[in-house]
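Issue 218. Parser rejects a valid record. Input:
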Amino acid sequence: MQYLRTLDLTLFHFINSGFTNKLFDFLAPWPEKGLFIVIVLGSFILIIGRNIRLRPAGFLLFTGYILGGCGLELIKESFHRLRPCVALSDARVLFVKTSLSFPSGHSCGAFMAAAYLSTIFGKKAGIWLFTTAALVGLSRIYCGVHYPADVIAGAVLGSAFGYFLGRVEKRIQLSLPSNPKNAKA
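Output the parser choked on:
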């Protein structure tokens, strides 16, 4: 177990301070507030869009984000891991968060959205979605608010939950009429 802690800390320092530059310093904090906004706006666009078959996806994306966040808070309380920006005096910190660290909620939300939306929009979209989710996770380490293990755990949990939502969405789609114009109001 000590080996894993040492590896986690070594990777944290490599990402957090190993390749700093002004562009990364500028871009890395964006997901702090932006992830929530992107998921809410994406959900809203799917819900009000012209394609009626995508409306359940909008509701599931938003609901999954909220439920996943609540579930993550329970997990964080059971592990009670302090963030590197609080626990490490040598962490390079772009902003401070004092809530608990393990697992990363931003990584979980980003990977949940990527996994779920890739089940709807396909592999090509999935490549972009998962790349974006990975960059969100890396930004959390770069900013000094998460360890790599936090991000990996968030990615695994979020991906699993996203694929589960994809299965739920397929069940919903099977229950919808095949031609929305023939559906009863």
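Fixed in the parser; the record now loads. Residues 30-176 form one domain.
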